[in-house]
Sequence to fold (431 residues):
Amino acid sequence: MRLSIIFAVLLSFIAVTTAIACLPISAWAVGAPTDNYTIPDIPTDNTTPDEIKPDVNFLLDGPSLQAKSAPPGVIAAFTSVPERDKNRITADDKWFLDMDINEPGWIYIYEYYPQGSNPAGKWVAFKWHLKESGVWKLGPFSATADEPEGQHIYRIWFYSGGQWTGEDPSSQNINAITWTYSLNTPPFKIVSFEINPPAINAGEGTLLFWEAQGASSVEISGLGTMAGTSGTVMIKPAATTIYVLTARDAAGETLSRSATVTVSPVPFAEQAMKFLGNPVILIVLLAAAAIIVMAFMLVRRRHAEQIDAKETLSLPVLQTPEKPVEYRPQAATKAILEVPDGPDIKIAGSSKTVGRADLARNLEIDRLSLVSRQHFRITFSDEQYFIEDLGSSGGTSLNGADIRESGAVSLKDDDLIETAGAVKLRFHILP
Fold:
């Protein structure tokens, strides 16, 4: 029983295989475009049937735009004359096929006729050997007297280097080009030309739609020649604009239609709120304001210091003796401030204020500008000396300690007084 079943299956397989082998070449592609994808035989030197070439001119039009490396690749393009959208062909038109192959190899092109046609299609090229890589231009093609109206499909296979086009050598990637044939040329007219929305605010965009039937070219004012006779494009006019579409057919006749987009200016308050509502803009404005205030304060301070320096320079300059003169204090002098490289500052009576004028002969202008006009005061009370900072900008230190906020501080013999880091003064009580 089991042997009889196996034998019956084997006979059925042999019968089906024999029937397929007896089919003619054209039958390999018979059927509607949606239910039959023919896979050509892999070509060899003795493959039958013989090569079929397109019955048109073909030439190598330029180098391949693909990388010259495995796997083999083919890119197909369709061009009608006159050129129309959606690859529409009429009885008076012609068309070309461009084949871009990246390696020498074999091209297979099968044309599927519209659904229900008999026959269902034909081979345009079979085992056609192209010996060079590059862009091959085939054409011009033209419709035959019995060309069926409706949708046609070119399916294209390419074989090179021992494999079909595609990543998998055991399968075929199929290129497909769809085109439509009709006996009559569609009437030349502008089907639509409109803007939606037709009114916008400045800075906004809107869509412009157009369709021109039977046109060979379309031009829109302000935009130039468009890529197709129908399409959509985003526009952002700065002001109210009238766009004019001009369509031209193969005979040179033209049709025109206009469409207007109204552009309203954005109210100033709305612009300001939108501008200030941006957190980045707000941070930048605040930072800029802070920088301006700081710069203004620095300029004012620098200006005041320059005025003080000019006033100091206007003071009479005393000649420094060539040789140091031994100090011999008068009876009224009870203490001194020892100044480096200069005459000492005498302290007589109950109070002495020391400032910029007292050090003008001892300091350079840049260091002198650090000393305030009235920097500190030394007073004598109850047989004791005291020192007090008078709110100087650079501060006063006593033996290295800042006394700006300390009020009157006790002063002893040989104490070191420093004014704003500009000069160090040594205090001495005279015997």
Summary: The radius of gyration is 50 Å.
